[in-house]
Amino acid sequence: KKIFVPETNYQQQEMTFKQLLSIEDIEKDGKGIYHSISPDGTTNKMDLIVVPGVAFDKLGYRIGYGGGYYDRFLSQHRSNTVSLLYDF
User: Rounded to the nearest 5°, which phi and psi values hold at 31?
Assistant: First the structure.
C-alpha cells in the first residue's frame, strides 16, 4: 500500500496529496500542520481517502469545515471516502 498525506497550498486555497515514504519525513509547515517532506511527487488519484471531521449530521455531512480544503478537493475529485469518529 502507498500512503499519501495532504499537501496544502494556502495561497491558492487548494489541497493535493503527497506520498509519505517514512514517518521521519513529517514536519510542521508554517501554520503548524504536519505534512510530508518526502521527495516523491503529489497525486489527486487515490483509492480511499480518510476524511477528518469533528461532527457529522445524520446524513453524514461534515459540520465545522475549517478551511474547506477537503470539501473543495472532494467536490472536484471522485474517490471512496471514510471518516472515523467517536459515538458521543
Answer: -100, 5
3-state helix/strand/coil string of 5-66 = EEEEECCCCEEEEEECCCHHHEEECCCCCEEECCCCCEECCCCEEECCCCEECCCCCEECCC
Per the CB < 8 A criterion, the answer to whether 65 and 52 are in contact is no
CA dihedral 67, 15, 49, 66 (to 10 degrees): 0
| Percent over 70 (pLDDT), the chain | 97
For residues 46 and 52, the answer to whether their CB atoms sit within 8 Å is no
Contact 53, 81 (CB under 8 A): no
Rounded to the nearest 5°, which phi and psi values hold at 82? -150, 145
**Does the model's pTM come out above 0.85?**
no
